[in-house]
Design the sequence.
């Protein structure tokens, strides 16, 4: 399942980590590029703007 998370503070980032750990694809956005890059390194799809976030959420989920 693909999920999107806006806001990657302590709670948001940990929720994304748990979702990725359990096999979900996560698209993430935060005003802090550092927070986005941290989760990209852990398997999330990062977004640089809200428009990018929306476009990424509409993209088909890769199978496999």
Sequence:
């Amino acid at each position: 399942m693909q999920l999107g998370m806006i806001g990657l503070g302590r709670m948001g980032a940990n929720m994304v980590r748990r979702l990725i750990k359990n096999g979900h694809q996560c698209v993430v956005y935060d005003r802090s590029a550092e927070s986005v890059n941290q989760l990209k390194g852990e398997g999330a799809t990062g977004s640089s703007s809200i428009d990018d976030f929306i476009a990424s959420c509409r993209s088909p989920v890769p199978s496999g």
The longest helix spans residues 10-21. The mean pLDDT is 93.
